[in-house]
């Protein structure tokens, strides 16, 4: 008996994305440009919902939580872990404001770096036919263990998703997020462009209306290396799980 069409489409989509990812990694550095090339895998869980406080009117209060495990290999072996809770307020059907905290640990060869981060965020969602979009503006204050000064960084994300025709449980997903340092610090940041992340992939829900969603795809990350004019290019297999009760 042949497999159901939705499962077959999901398998083919994931196989195609994995083939593209492996193909990029197999290219020699010269073919992919002069940047320093690296690769890795990022795993993440994102969740948000309404914050319910007994005996109070909190229908517009929201909670946020995401956690990450990021593995890098190649020339720069590294593990990065992130835990990021937050609270927000729904201003209307399309706009929300947030504030939160993030704990970050970077494990490098012979060096561990810890970061405590405060963040503020504005979210804006819009629908254009069957295309759902998100604009997310975030400001961060970064306290890093290897320096005494606070680093200010701004990041802007634009995201779009669209259901796959005839397969409503599947989604085409793409997003881009660009980062800018706003000040100079004694731990290496300089004002200006910091990095860019571009994701292309697919999402799948276990069933229509489920609060769970998984997105798998290719993530390209370019990081500017100050002082020497070089860039670090990371080719990443990204797996994101979403739970929005």
Describe this structure in words.
The protein is mostly beta strands. It has one domain (5-243): Porin (Beta Barrel). The protein is built from two helices and eleven strands. It has helices at residues 5-26, 29-32, and strands at residues 36-50, 61-72, 78-90, 95-108, 111-128, 131-144, 151-164, 167-181, 192-204, 212-224, 231-243. It has an eleven-stranded mixed barrel with strand order 1-2-3-4-5-6-7-8-9-10-11. Strand 6 and strand 7 (151-164) form a beta hairpin. It is globular. It starts with a helix and ends with a strand.
C-alpha-based Rg, rounded: 19 Å
What is the number of independent domains? 1
Give the SSE string: HHEEEEEEEEEEE
Give the neighbour order of strands across the main sheet. Answer: 1-2-3-4-5-6-7-8-9-10-11
CATH topology: Porin
Oligomer class: single chain
CATH class reads: Mainly Beta
Question: Secondary structure elements and their pairing?
Answer:
Layout: H1 5-26, H2 29-32, E1 36-50, E2 61-72, E3 78-90, E4 95-108, E5 111-128, E6 131-144, E7 151-164, E8 167-181, E9 192-204, E10 212-224, E11 231-243
Parallel strand pairs: 1-11
Antiparallel strand pairs: 1-2, 2-3, 3-4, 4-5, 5-6, 6-7, 7-8, 8-9, 9-10, 10-11
């Amino acid at each position: 008996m042949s497999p159901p069409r939705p499962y077959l489409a999901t398998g083919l989509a994931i196989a195609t994305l994995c083939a593209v990812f492996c193909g990029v990694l197999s290219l020699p550095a010269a073919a992919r440009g002069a940047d320093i090339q690296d690769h890795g895998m990022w795993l993440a869980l994102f969740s948000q919902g309404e914050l319910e406080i007994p005996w109070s009117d909190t229908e517009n209060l929201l909670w946020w939580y995401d956690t990450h495990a990021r593995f890098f290999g190649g020339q720069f072996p590294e593990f990065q872990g992130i835990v990021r809770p937050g609270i927000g307020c729904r201003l209307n059907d399309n706009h929300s404001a947030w504030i939160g905290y993030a704990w970050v640990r970077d494990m490098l060869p012979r060096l561990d770096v810890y970061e405590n981060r405060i963040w503020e965020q504005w979210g804006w969602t819009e629908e254009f036919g069957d295309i759902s979009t998100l604009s997310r503006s975030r400001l961060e204050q970064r306290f890093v263990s290897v320096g005494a000064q606070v680093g200010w960084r701004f990041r802007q994300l634009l995201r779009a998703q669209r259901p796959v025709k005839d397969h409503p449980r599947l989604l085409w997903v793409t997003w881009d997020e660009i980062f800018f340092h706003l000040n100079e610090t004694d731990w290496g940041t300089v004002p200006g462009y910091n990095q860019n992340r571009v994701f292309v992939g697919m999402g799948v829900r276990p069933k229509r209306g489920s609060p769970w969603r998984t997105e798998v795809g290719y993530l390209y990350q370019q990081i500017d290396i100050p002082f020497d004019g070089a860039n670090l290019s990371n080719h990443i297999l990204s797996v994101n799980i979403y739970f929005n009760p």
